[in-house]
């Protein structure tokens, strides 16, 4: 456990981070962003943790930015301009840490994931959602277009779906979010913890080094021209093939036995 805003539990190589501000539906205040950033930085250097689960306490996963904090910043001489830019920059830097982490990150979503909260879920590698969870980038409903959440969203769902969500402010129920690629798996609310943990345990059972090089390669090749993507991943696979544990894994498969990984 780190502090009141972020709670951490570790078991079986899986770190579970819980956003713990249920009174604000786990809003991404400046303090929450700073605490989560610090915890992600610790995880980046953590060799023992193989998988990360990110969840929210209380009734929701995350309701986005703290609107009360943002409105209070308008009292400044610049009407909050410097605060807003600093907030969005800090949030963007935190979001970018999620795909950059060596470990796979699973968002466990219940209740709502709205605006920057939807951005947070979309920035994770995978999402497991309760059947009654809802996802939205609904800032347009209060006159604030979700431009920064749009970055993560448009990298997960088809452009037409993202644009409709952004311009209508309407929510996607979990089954529909799964259909369009925002959610990987759905579960009954009572089974959400179990379903998320099962996926995390599946990932944790793989060769850690292989998963880590695979995650890095997955994001590095995205957006590259086809020939460059193949050149990059060919280099990574060659590196991977030369590992002792990979040689052992292939031998074990061919010999129909469990691998003896170091």
UniProtKB/TrEMBL annotation:
Entry keyword Transport: no
Keywords associated with the record: Fatty acid metabolism, Lipid metabolism, Lyase, Transit peptide
A Pfam short name: ECH_1
InterPro entries linked to this entry: ClpP/crotonase-like_dom_sf (IPR029045), Enoyl-CoA_hydra/iso (IPR001753), Enoyl-CoA_hydra_C (IPR014748), Mitochondrial_ECH-domain (IPR052377)
Role according to the record: May play a role in fatty acid biosynthesis and insulin sensitivity.
Family: Belongs to the enoyl-CoA hydratase/isomerase family.
Protein name (Swiss-Prot/TrEMBL): Enoyl-CoA hydratase domain-containing protein 3, mitochondrial
Phylogenetic placement of the source organism: Bacteria, Pseudomonadati, Pseudomonadota, Alphaproteobacteria, Rhodobacterales
């Amino acid at each position: 456990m780190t502090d009141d805003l972020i709670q951490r539990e570790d078991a079986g190589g899986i770190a579970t981070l819980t956003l713990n501000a249920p009174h604000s539906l786990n809003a991404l205040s400046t303090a929450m962003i700073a605490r989560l950033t610090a915890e992600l930085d610790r995880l980046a250097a953590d060799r023992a943790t193989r998988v990360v689960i990110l969840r929210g306490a209380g009734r929701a996963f995350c309701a986005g930015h703290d609107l009360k904090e943002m409105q209070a910043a308008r009292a400044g001489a610049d009407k909050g301009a410097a605060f807003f830019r600093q907030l969005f920059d800090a949030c963007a830097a935190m979001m970018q840490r999620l795909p950059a982490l060596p470990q796979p990150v699973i968002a466990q979503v219940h209740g709502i994931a709205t605006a920057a909260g939807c951005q947070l879920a979309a920035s994770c590698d995978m999402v497991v959602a309760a059947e009654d969870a809802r996802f939205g980038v609904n800032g347009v409903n209060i006159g604030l277009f979700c431009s920064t959440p749009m970055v993560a969203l448009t990298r997960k769902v088809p452009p037409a779906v993202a644009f409709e969500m952004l311009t209508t402010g309407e929510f996607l129920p979990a089954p529909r979010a799964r259909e369009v690629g925002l959610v990987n798996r759905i579960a009954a609310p009572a089974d959400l913890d179990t379903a998320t943990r099962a996926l995390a345990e599946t990932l944790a059972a793989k060769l850690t080094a292989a998963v880590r090089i695979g995650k890095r390669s997955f994001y590095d090749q995205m957006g590259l021209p086809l020939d460059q993507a193949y050149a990059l991943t060919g280099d990574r696979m060659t590196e991977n093939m030369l590992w002792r544990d990979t040689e052992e894994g292939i031998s074990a498969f061919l010999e129909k036995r469990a691998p003896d990984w170091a």
